[in-house]
Amino acid sequence: MVEELVHLHNVSVGYDEPLIEGINIEILAGDVIAVLGPSGIGKTTLLRTIAGLVRPLAGKVELAVPPRGGLGYIPQRLGLVGNLTVRGNVEMGTRVGLSRWYPPFLPVPSIQRGFVDQAMVDLGIDHLAEQPVRILSGGQQRRVATAKTVAQRPKLVLADEFLGELDDDNVDIVMRTVNQAIQAENSAMIMVEHHEELAREVANRIWRITDGRLVEELKR
Amino acid sequence: MNKRFFIFCGLLAMLTIYFFLDLVGDLGRLSGGWANLVVFFNESLWPPEWSVLEAQSYPVCEARFEFTCSVAWLGMVETIKIAFVATIIGFIFALPLSILAASNLSPISIALPARILLAGMRSLPSIIWAVLFMIVFDVGTLAGICAMSFYTVGYLGKLQFESLEGLKNAPLESAKAMGMTRFETAWLVAIPESANHLLSHLLFMFEYNVRHGTVIGLVGAGGIGLYINTYLKLAQYDKVVALLIVVFLVVVVIDFISMILRSAVNEESDVERPSWSSIFLPGAISSALHPTPMKRNVEHESE
Lengths: 220, 303
What we know:
The complex is a heterodimer. By secondary structure, chain A is an alpha/beta fold. Chain A has six helices and nine strands; from the N terminus they run βββαββαααβαβαββ. Chain A has helices at residues 43-50, 86-95, 110-122, 138-152, 168-185, 196-202, and strands at 4-14, 18-28, 32-36, 58-63, 71-74, 156-160, 188-192, 205-210, 213-217. In chain A, helix 2 (86-95) packs across helix 3 (110-122). Chain B has a domain at 66-266: MetI-like (MetI-like fold, Orthogonal Bundle), CATH 1.10.3720. Chain B is globular, with a radius of gyration of 25 Å. The interface between A and B is large, with 48 and 34 residues.
């Protein structure tokens, strides 16, 4: 039986006013879901609601992932620490796999260091390991953010337009690495994407938001 | 610039004039004030008595440079030492308190008491702290260090929690969604992300404490202020002026050094900051220490 990771029960998302209402949907292990829709319609708010950063206006979000390290979130602005090195940022992902009492000022154990090295190699940023993130290009920073999430090995990845600023080759590298990680961990991914063709290419489920409703499209 | 802005400025000016006249009362009292100052300046203040730069008669100076046995040197060095120790001690306590006080890092139930504590430490000027600590430790530098440290915690803590609250939301949200603890978020995200500002505030605080060292010395808490206080009591105003000139010059030098250091760590927008070694060391040594110069977009991609 396929593992259910998230279940949204009649959820309404938004801030003061609902942007999307009546969402009843489940996310299963292995799903790569692309969320489509025009700007300002509530795609990011939906991701933030699933991530637990915004309370749903109505309904219930059930997450069957561990509260620590079970969810990887790549916000639109990537959420990297500019003054830390690439390695420092990617390592941050692995720290949530350790006990919450593991002191953050100690280096990560060798197993986690292995995850970090592998993620950097897979995403082609190992030669930048000791560079501070703030001096990297937008595309390189996106690969760092992806490496951080891949090294984290979460059960659910939420990514907000993380393929933007990447050329075709790098989109391939990033998606291949992410797909491998999803298969290895039997996890799932929800990504907000503006480029419909790209979304259809990389996702196996498509959610479209129109008129305040979330509709699942059959993949052509 | 609209009409409302001018009305607002006009009201502000009227209010200021009203308060001023209300406080001063009779402006006639000011007549003759300037002439008094000129007389006092000519008779008591000028020229400065530069003997404060000469070695004291007792104890006998055995240093290579006699200047280092002078009142000005001894007092100023002690003031700088007090300021340095107090700034570091203050920073050690201010940083955790500022993390607790930052509303984006701590719940309001913790942030509010932390802010009240910082406000309390800040609301008493360091001269009052100095008086309080002199009651505990007697007159001397220990009281000065404690007083300055307490005030530093309050003042630096406020600067720091405001910096922390100005952090970008994305790294904090990412950390929260991942399930990082508050301590991990503070240590791994908040402090590195605002490190430039924290360091800049630290340098500013040191400069501030050196300036303030003269004030707390006035109540006997050590440093050059102690000598200034002694000369004031003896009505040797020309020596006071000489010491104040020394303080002024030292503050200018510290301000200048601090400005250079702060410009090295203040990074606005995309402006690349130089490395510390490139400021203090000759080019060749600096490049040897940093073989790969930092450049933006280290690998230019066709995106």
